[in-house]
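User: quick one - fold this with calcium ion bound?
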Amino acid sequence: MAISTKFLSSFKSTNMLLRTSSILFFIFLGTFFCFSQSTDRKSYRNSNGKNIYLPLGKISFADTVVDFYIGTPKPLRKFRNPEESLKEPDYTSYSIPSFFSLGCGGNLTVKFTDNGFMNLAGKDIYIFEVGPAREPAKVEISKDGIEWIYAGEIDGGRSVLELSDQNIDTTSIFYYLRVTDLKSLCVSKSAGADIDAIAAINSVIHFDMNADVLFDVGKSELKPKSIKTLDSISKIMIKIGEANLSIVGHTDSDGTEEYNYGLSYNRCYSVREKLKNLLGNSSDFKFSIKGLGESFPKAPNDSDINKQINRRVEITLLPPNDYYGNIP
Ligand SMILES: [Ca+2]
Ligand SMILES: [Ca+2]
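Assistant: Sure. Structure tokens for the protein plus calcium ion:
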């Protein structure tokens, strides 16, 4: 749900901006619900029979194919469907084409749409590679699909990545991942790495909400209309079941710094209380709230539109504390 500053600044009227933000937000929620029905299991078996635990469960998998290139020599035709690399792993045997073969030197770019991922404690990404030969591949990640960062390599014995190994920062949220076959084993019938699924172990779900949708100017009591938005978020939380929830508030530069710290904190407090109320006793969440006032603007506070961009509440679901406690 990140909306770029460039995109936002192209809007002429404040109302249009608000309306469009809301529409995009609900399209996002709709997308989420399509993908998150049914199961709450959080461990997925790799092709060696080992269970891989994903703290946020089913949403943690890559969701759409952005781009792909099939290398040469090419794999058999039946292994050339890149969609087979999405969602949960479903490999049963090598004869069933439930995975995507990159071909020698080929690549695949996927996007996570109902989750992002971060470099947090422990391993961060798991690639379910299958097939008789495990071909080495390079992995890169991106926040926006434009600027890419090297994230490491997978090979026959290692399908898991720790982003700290490449000194990747611990505050960015990534949404894109690219796997490129390294051309070292180009003879098998499924030439190139064979990808069944791509999982973010350290998945996060981030909502960047315009504060004007939730609050009247200078107020920290939620508008009646905001309940629909928070109710949608609480439904996602209930599906996840257990997570840490960070709520961070920001203001524009109108008013004193002290006033803005107070306002942004009080707004986070209202959001937390409402979410707790909507969740009831059905889930297990640990909340943290932080009011950052005007100290982290997204845009210079030099126009009404930019000020509106800066007035925001960011909600992020992260893997639960219990999970971090169990990391060796
Ligand atoms: Ca996903
Ligand atoms: Ca990590």
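One thing worth noting: Confidence is low (pLDDT under 50) at residues 1-40.
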